[in-house]
Amino acid sequence: MALTSATRPRSRSAVQCLTRLALLALALVPLTAPAEAVRQDHINAELVAATTAAVPGETLTVALRLEPDKHWHTYWRNPGDSGLPTRLRWDVPESIEPGPILWPFPERQPMGPLTNFGYSGEHFLLTDIPVPADFDAEELTLDVAASWLVCENICIPGSADLNLTLPVQASAQPSQWAKALQQTRKRVPTPLTAPAQFAVDGEHLRIQLAPDALPAGDSLVYFPATTELASNTDTPVFRHGEAVIDIRVETSEYLGALPKESEHVVVINNQRAVVFTARQIGADALIPVDGGSTAAAGDASFNLGLALVFALLGGLILNLMPCVFPVLSIKAVSVAQQSGSAAGERRVHALCYTAGVVGGFLVLAIALIALREAGERIGWGFQLQSPVFVTVLAWIMFVLGLSLAGVFEFGTRLMGMGDSLTHQGGRRGALMTGLLACLVATPCTAPFMGPAMGFAITQPAIVALAVFAALGLGMALPFLLIGFVPATARLLPRPGAWMLTFKQLMAFPMYVTAIWLIWVLGRQTGVNGMAVGLLGVVLIGFAIWLWSKRPQQGPARVGLALAAWLAVAGSLAMLASPLLQPAPASAAPTDVASAAGWGVYAPDTVAELQAKGQPVFVNLTADWCVTCHVNERVALNTATVVNAMERSGVARLKGDWTNRDPVITAVLEQYDRTGVPLYLLYPGEAGAAPMVLPQILTPQRVVDALDTL
């Protein structure tokens, strides 16, 4: 049987214009072109490769690409209560030995009393093929006989003889399928080295692992890789005890003689999976499960409701983060000026600001989701890994500082914005201030944000957008309350001459932010890139000076305006300079890592140190991450923590994510994080899993973690 599966109105327009410019600096989504496939009943099949050539001495990754029609599906290695797994039979040159199918974790496909495991939509079954170093043919031809079962209300067996011919070359480029295959590999379960055991206890199968083998509090889904052992329809229960993790599930009705070993897969947050082999023991040898917590698998103990609450709280706390203060200073000026306004006008401004913040987070969410779907390994704050975006943001902060200081004010028709903004422009200014606040918030991570963002990117797009919207709503909430709660409005100071001084004072946080961003640019690109950013500042300042010198009428007015626009155009043209390209990850500066006793992070270094019995503390950070710098200043680099680490013999490693680094991105994904900071404390035991520390650190928190070693 088968399955179905805010300043015055004029200066506010500066925020509107410049925020639009910042949004243009986001990267474009790369697209891949479709390829031809063999068409069978209700399914397309094709043999594809990750590279354009086979390279002797390297491993070639190929995949069977299957694309069932809508509502149709194929099956996993263990198909469940019915169905058949896909099979491959290779015909290749004698010296070539294809590896086994690397199965990505499946979907649960319930139908009536049955539950199957399989795949719907386009999916790839990977195979790694080592190419011998002495392989001297001009081409490598791979032939495979593929067979499958595709089902909806009926099941249709299918098969096809597929082939792929690749040139044999000294090097190869990624193919059009490279990103899709890379995404699939992330869903292939990774082996878990922790020991595991299983036993039949009455009518239940009990599987036990070390207490640190799986993360507590995450959404865990269990799949039996060994057939006819565990019930496919029962919902497994995970119990995290002090001494053991216990997975309990009903036994299969077809259970016969117990195997000496069985294989199991656990999916974590629907994002990654682990596979492990358990040895058979007697039920009396099972370890009692004392303390800890219990959760049903797939129950999403961290569910949408909790994610929305965490996102709302994270957004609210984000207002206290240092990266948001410069833009909030603009909003503070606006709020002070509105203290004498009518209640209705305050509410409109609050709604406009909220719409800007929420809209900005939704734009970032859409870009993040789209780029990840396209195969890009990015996370929270990804736009700040672009030197072009950092440059534009630094220029925006410089211009806003000049505007707040009263050096100039934007005209009411600047950049074609049109009609007088004495009324409507204030609302537009509130909207654009909200957008800008969102953009500059990304260098910071607040408490509660990490779990919420990690949950969001593993969910369907509509759920992810809801979580990002809740984050934006939380950030806008204080100003929303000021607009709608009369009691808070009465706390606002009365308008007066002090407002001009306050407005000018708020320019200086903008200048400091611009300097910090130029420093980040230098860290990303070197001193030449920093020089380009500073030259742009000079050109923009020159353009503003020319604009302010225009007479009321006459040819000089047009000439100076044209010269000003040419200066702006010149600064924008510099954004295409090759000097603004990020340095390769391997060439990233290491002085920060080597300072204060930090080594440079690499996964192999962690493994080597653990093998020698030395604990390791890993700090994954970025120069544009304000939260990271605050944690280092108040906790990690303090004498208390440094001395505690030295007493414990802990090696300290720092990984730099200022520019994109796929190695660090992979580690972030492994621990269900969308961005930095990430702090890991590894015990001095080979292969032992690390403790994940909170994103906001205090010296005591770190010392307490060290005491567990």
From TrEMBL:
Keyword Flavoprotein on entry: no
This protein's name: Thiol:disulfide interchange protein
Signal peptide: 1-35
All residue ranges annotated as the Cytochrome c domain in the record: 608-709
GO MF annotations, alphabetized: electron transfer activity; heme binding; metal ion binding; protein-disulfide reductase activity
Bilayer topology: Multi-pass membrane protein
Ribonucleoprotein is among the record's keywords: no
Principal location: membrane
A GO cellular-component term linked to this record: plasma membrane
CDD domains for this protein: DsbDgamma
Lineage: Bacteria, Pseudomonadati, Pseudomonadota, Gammaproteobacteria, Chromatiales
Pfam families referenced in this protein's UniProt entry, alphabetically: DsbD_N, DsbD_TM, Thioredoxin_7
Keywords, sorted A to Z: Cell membrane, Cytochrome c-type biogenesis, Heme, Iron, Membrane, Metal-binding, Signal, Transmembrane, Transmembrane helix
Domain Thioredoxin: 577-709
Protein's GO biological process: cell redox homeostasis; cytochrome complex assembly
Record localization: Cell membrane
Transmembrane segments: 304-329, 350-369, 389-408, 429-449, 461-485, 497-521, 527-547, 559-580
Gene3D superfamilies in the cross-refs: Glutaredoxin
InterPro entries (alphabetical): Cyt_c-like_dom (IPR009056), Cyt_c_assmbl_TM_dom (IPR003834), DsbD_gamma (IPR035671), DsbDN (IPR028250), Thioredoxin-like_sf (IPR036249), Thioredoxin_domain (IPR013766)
